[in-house]
Amino acid sequence: MPLVDLITQHEMAIRLSFFFGILLIMALWELVAPRRQLKVSKLMRWTNNLGLVFLNSIVLRLLFPAAAVGVAIFVESNSWGLLNYYRPAFPWAVVLSIIVLDFIIYLQHVLMHAAPSLWRVHRVHHADLDYDVTTGARFHPIEIIVSMLIKFAAILVLGPPIVAVVIFEIILNALAMFNHGNVRLPRSLDRALRLIIVTPDMHRVHHSVEDNEANSNFGFNLSIWDRLFGTYIAQPHKGHGNMSIGIHGYRNPEQVDKLPGMLALPFVGKITGYAINRREQDK
Question: Which of 61, 90, 91, 258 is the most buried (most CB within 10 A)?
């Protein structure tokens, strides 16, 4: 059986294996070499953050049984999309697809901060009072649905190979857990890695309570987008040990780190302007 067919047929098992494998590796790494001292009960946060992941998985299965790979299969079978029209060599089509999809995820992330209604749901991700591997999978179900619809649209227009979509989904999940890890990297290694990919120290800046820092470093996989579009900040002003994680005005663990509070958070409070340009805090 060709490798592409094998990957396609066992896509779910492959993705789950990578998810739990990376989760375990990062959890052990966080125990051995933590970057910051956690302030909230890890048991409480992990239970609720992973509970949200489980809920999102159910929601996606019910609404989109075929998910992104199913759309890619449909697009390829009907020869839709730019890459099916121009037909570059398969390896180039895979690489180009992964890069373009990553750019779209970067733009989506900026949009989540720029539109008040989207910031409402995205702030569930930012409201976590600590920063570790589970933060990388902590998203409100509404955001997960919006993200999936954007991904569907991108696949319809681009027409990527099926295997490219599978690889991209694996990379996105793996690097999201990696760059949200509460792990310590040697400074020289961090500098070298962030020339290509987003590192934990680079993305942690994005989870600062400070507005200018929270509205920077939007990339999840490739670091080039933040550098190209002027949204890159190298380090937090107060340093990684002293910076505050979360959102001003949302500091109650009952509200931001327990599942009922997380699900209700998009419907709480008043957003007076675009989050990415705001100068006043949420009221």
Answer: 258
